[in-house]
Amino acid sequence: MGRNIENLPHALENAGGLDRRLGGGKRPAVFLDYDGTLTPIVDRPEEAIISESMREAVERLARRCTVCVVSGRDRTVVQELMGLDDLIVAGSHGFDIWSPDEGTIQHDAGGGFDNLVDEVKTRLEEEIGPFQGASVEPKKTSVAVHYRLVSEEERPRIKQIVGNLLAERSEDLKVTPGKMVYEIQPKIEWDKGKAVLYLLEALDLDRDDVVPVYVGDDVTDEDAFEALAGRGLGIFVGHADAPEVAGRTTSADYVLHTTEEVERFLDTLAR
Ligand SMILES: [Mg+2]
C-alpha cells in the first residue's frame, strides 16, 4: 500500500499535471496540516510559530478558496498559533471543527450507524427477550442491555449473548459494561481522513467542481491522503531521506520538501 516517497513527483516541478487536475473550471479546497507543514518541525511544540510570510500566503489563498487547517493539536491552540480568525480550523485530528461563518460545526461522530444500531437492537431483543427481568434499551447511537432484574443464575447467559454478538462483530462493535448494564456501541474511529470527508460534506464542497487538496507531513495525514485518493490531491511534505520518513510509504500524489516550498505552492494555488 502506498508509494515510495522518493518516487513522488514534485508539486512545484509538475505544475502541468496539477493544472490539469485543477483546471476545467474546478476550484481547490485546501486542507493544511500545521506542524511540519506550515511550520518547520521544532523540538518544543510551543515554538512551532508560523512565519509572517506563510501566514500571509495562507491568508491570500483563503481569499480565493476554502482553506482549512487540520491539526492534531487542540483547535484553540491552532487558532492562536495561526493568529488568523477567518480560517476554518479542525483541531484534535479534525474532531473539533470551527468555521468563521458557523462557529463550532456540530458533528455527530456516532452518525451514520443507524442501520447497525438497529440490527443490534433487533437481535438483542430477540435473544434477550425471553429472560425475565432483562430489558433492551435502544438509544440514538447505542443499545443498552439492562440485567439488574435478571436472576443471578441467568446473568451469565445474558453476558454470553452480549459476548457472542461482540465476538461476531468485533470489527464494528464495542461494549462498555456499566452498573448492571451492557452498553453496546458502534466502534467509532475518527481521524484526519474522516474529518476531511466530513468537512467536504459539511461545507458543501462534496461536488464535482471542487478538488480537495490536502497538504501534510505526518503519519496521521496518511488517513487524509487515503480518503482523498482518486478524488483529490495529496501533497506530502518532507524529504525521502529524512530519518523520520525512512521506510514510510505514502498515499499522497505529490511531494514538497520544505515549508518554504509549501508557501510557494500555496501561492501557485492562489493565483
Ligand atoms: Mg504535521
Structure report:
The protein folds into two domains: 3-107 and 190-270, HAD superfamily/HAD-like (Rossmann fold); 114-186, Trehalose-6-phosphate phosphatase related protein, domain 2 (Alpha-Beta Plaits, 2-Layer Sandwich), CATH 3.30.70.1020. 33% of the residues lie in helices and 21% in strands. The chain contains eight helices and 14 strands. An eight-stranded mixed beta sheet has the order 6-5-4-3-2-11-12-14, sandwiched between helices. The chain has a four-stranded antiparallel beta sheet with strand order 7-8-10-9, covered by helices on one side. Strands 1-13 form a two-stranded antiparallel sheet. The longest helix has 15 residues, at 114-128. The radius of gyration is 23 Å and the shape is elongated. Magnesium ion (MG) binds at residues 33, 35-37, 216-218. Its cofactor is Mg(2+). Pathway: Glycan biosynthesis; trehalose biosynthesis. Keywords: Hydrolase, Magnesium, Metal-binding. This is Trehalose 6-phosphate phosphatase.
Mean pLDDT: 89
Per DSSP E runs of 2 or more residues, the count of β-strands stands at: 14
What spatial form do the alpha-carbon principal axes imply?
elongated
CATH class (first level) name of the largest domain: Alpha Beta
* CATH level 4 superfamily of the largest domain: HAD superfamily/HAD-like
Q: Look up the CATH topology of the largest domain.
A: Rossmann fold
Residues in β-strands, percent: 15-25%
Largest sheet: 8 strands, mixed
Distinct ligand kinds: magnesium ion
List unreliable stretches of 5+ residues: none
